[in-house]
Amino acid sequence: xxxxxxxxxxxxxxxxxxxxxxxxxxxxxxxxxxxxxxxxxxxxxxxxxxxxxxxxxxxxxxxxxxxxxxxxxxxxxxxxxxxxxxxxxxxxxxxxxxxxxxxxxxxxxxxxxxxxxxxxxxxxxxxxxxxxxxxxxxxxxxxxxxxxxxxxxxxxxxxxxxxxxxxxxxxxxxxxxxxxxxxxxxxxxxxxxxxxxxxxxxxxxxxxxxxxxxxxxxxxxxxxxxxxxxxxxxxxxxxxxxxxxxxxxxxxxxxxx
Length: 257
Fold this sequence. Notes:
- The chain is of the alpha+beta class.
- It contains five helices and twelve strands.
- Strands 1, 2, 3, 4, 5, 6, 7, 8, 9, 10, 11 and 12 form a twelve-stranded mixed β-sheet that branches.
- A hairpin with a 2-residue loop joins β11 and β12.
- α1 packs antiparallel against α3 (175-185).
- The longest helix has 18 residues, at 28-45.
């Protein structure tokens, strides 16, 4: 039986000091930003740069993401990101990105679902009218659950304004920043005593620069549910699942000065 070689793209990155938390581990939002970067680099390597999308009035947008974490990279640690994407199905493109350490051990798996949008009409397209040779795979069998476990009896967590530092080149809150906001809503003692093992996030409605968003949260199952609302409609939902602390689950964190 003939096997087809998987089409993928790899880069090495380093966990920067400014992207590390009080434990010197890579922040969850930084992990997403690094994945966004290699996704863009992968597209550019196949000729799909800013001008390419401008000429076609197209843009890629993230609809939802799930991340399974074995160990977060630590400050100054070099790791490899390897990404691969699948052909469009039902208006969505699956992209899998793995993070591995210097010994080849998996640190995290990111399952991201992208949409293609017509920038003139705002309409979601079922697929591109163009092709890019050797860019997409016919099938990527591995995937993560994209379900966001919802909580009951939501507690208010204040109001966020989409200020300058939260917004990206599209003029609205960046996808990774929503995760920063969700992490800030979680009680501090959770971060001090538990390890983040999994999270899933869905993006429903953009929050443009200058607009406000209300935040709510609730404990659920092994984690926490966070909801952001703009004008009474969901802007994003996030589920974060925590496991035992590193010293209890046998995980070794390599901390460098």
